Structures are given as structure tokens and as C-alpha cells.
Amino acid sequence: MNTLMRNPTYLKLLAAQIVALSGTGLLTVGLGLLAYDLAGSQAGAVLGIAYTIKMVAYVGLSPIAQALASRLPRKAVLIGADLLRAAVALALPFVDALWQVYVLIFLLQAASATFTPAYQALLPDVLPDEEEYTRALSLSRLCYDLENLTSPALAGLLLSVVSYSGLFVGTVIGFLGSAVLVLVAVLPVVKVDQKAGFVERATKGLRIYLATPRLRGLLAVTLAGAAASAFVLVNTVVMVRVGYSGSERGLAVAMAAFGAGSMVVALALPGVLKRVSDRSVMLGATLALVALMAVLAVWFRAELPSWWAFLLLWAGIGGLYSGILTPSGRLIRRSGASADLPALFAAHFALSHVCWLITYPLAGWTGARLGMGAAMGLLAVLALGGLIAAMLLWHKEVAHQHPELSEDDPHMQANGGMRTHAHPRVRDALHPRWS
What we know:
78% of the residues lie in helices and 1% in strands. It is mainly α.
């Protein structure tokens, strides 16, 4: 960790992530208040449409945005996305119609669909050592969880002295701060294929992703994690306020328990992954999550657990969710050449959000219509399907041969000159497809 914290480029990028996440957290609170100001009792429907727009933008625009930006300097792409996000946040206090909110949300999420995969693809080049990169992934997960805990508190503090429009100013400051930190960072340069056409660039990440067994497995376990997290994010408020007759503070405590579980596992994972393979950790966490969801489905149909048991269960879901998602960057990093990583991260960004696009409405509809036990049961079945698919799709690393290569070929030499060898599965000219 000390080596990681002495890397000036990484520290600037980490700080950029933190201030941008803080801005995003303030935006979430401010957007809810703006929706209520414009739509009153229909604010929930407005936010539902806004978040659907967010998911559609993430799924549809991420590969396209990556293809458009692939020939531009990465620093320019990141700064441009931050400036667009800041401009949208600056415009939000002045809207007076719902359609304007929807347009601005679409622009904001289009910028985020550009920024996030580009940022994720940058880290492996900044941190070539896998151990340091693993620690960085854990810190990134920690930042997301801390933002979920601290942003509502920060928003509440600001609202005691300013109107909700002031929250958007805080959002602008966060995105501009992120842009400045990226500007002063010295980023590595990666050569890109200047001959590839737009369609090839836009689909390259998806083609590599879906042709790589470990990444198909990653998508399957991501679906399982999305099933559990969607239930927590959508239905916790109903369970706390109705089932436990709790207050807004009770809701904050429940979500804090979920985040605390996630943080504990994220901090422990770098040490665990030194001894246990990513596949074993992620499949094990998925299996445990499916089992826990099945138990909760039966439990919720009979009665609610005690409040303290509920908090422990939510912490357990958060921990297992983190065990599934945190190592994902390691798998993507091993699955493509450096120049292909932006396309791969964009593909994962889009495909993973398809999972949430499925599970969010499923969690909300079944919870409202069929009850919490049935909702958890249906999502547990979906998670089980993800686990089974992952076990079938994600093969263990196997030895292979290259009979077409001479013994002095660089690839053969890189693998000790052995005709039969094994290495992380990377889809390239020598390995166009893995069975």
C-alpha cells in the first residue's frame, strides 16, 4: 500500500475519483428535490424515468462513446467528459420543465458513460504491478461505498445553509476539481489502431468480451450480484419504513450496514487474492450469495428478522456483493492487450448495466405486487441462473500449443520456449478464440 500511495499519477486519479463521486452524490440528492419541486407527488415517477434514461445511456452509449474517443488523447477525453458533466449540473437549477430534466440527465449520463470506462482502462497502465492494481480496485470499491454513506450527510449539512440549488454548485465544483486533477496528472500514452473503422472500434470490445470465457463468466456472476443489490437498493426503504416502522435514520443505518459489509470485504480481498484465484473467490461469493438469498426468501415469507439480525444480513449481502464485483477489473485486465482495454472496459460497463436494467424493475415490481419474500425468491432464482452460467462458461486456465510457431518466436520465448504452455487468456492475433 505504501508503494501505491507514493505513485503521484495514481494519487491524482484517486483524488479525481473521490471529488467526482462527491459531486455525483450531491447531484443525486439535489435531483430528488428538484423532481419534487417540479412534479410534487409524482416525483417518484419522474426519478424512475430519469434513472431509466441513465441505464439506457450507459448500455447504449458506452461502446459508441469509446469508439468515438479512441483516437483522442485519454487526458482530453476524461477532461472533456468532466467539463460536460459540470456544464449539465450548472444548468439544472435553471430548468422549469420535466423534459429539460430528462435531456440534461441524458447528456450527463452520456458523459459518465465516456468517463468511467476510460478511467477504469487507464488504471492498469498507471499500475502495471498486479498486486498494486488489486489494492487500487479495493480502494475504488471503498470510495463508492464511502460516497454512499457520506454524500447524504454532506448534502444535509449544505441544505442547512443553502437551498437545494446549492447542491448543484457542489456538483459543479466536484466535476471541475476532477478535471483539474486529471489535467495535472502525467498519463501513460498507448498506441491505438488508426486503421480500424468506426463499426469495428465500436464492436471490438463486445467481440473480445463475449469470446473470452472468463469474461462471459464475469458477466454471469455480475447478474447474480445485480439481483441481490437491486433488492437492497429498491426495497430497503419499504422494509425499513413499513416493516420495521423505522425513520429516515433507520434507512440510513440499513444502507450503512450494506456498505460496511462491502468495505470490509474490499479491504480484505488483496490479501485473499494472493492465495486464492479470482475464479474461486468470485464463484464462492456468488454461491454464498445465492444461498443467503434463498434463506431470506423463505424467512421473509414467514416473518421479518429482528432489526439487528436484519442489519447483519444486509452487511452479509454487501460483503458478498463486493466479493463478486471488486476483482472484476483484474479479469478484464488479463483479457486483452493494453490498447484494447478501453474497449473491454466499455463493453463491461454496458453489459453490466444491462443486468441492473433487468433487476431494478424486477425487484420493484415483484416487491410491490407479490411481497418481499416472493421478490427475494425470484431474484434468488435469477442469481442461481447466473451462478450456473458462470460455472459452465468460465473454464479454468488450460495448457495449449502453437504448432504454427517456431521455437524462437517471441511468444514462445515469453513462455519459456515450451511448446505446451499456459498463460492468462488474452484474445489477440495468436489467440483469436478460446474454447
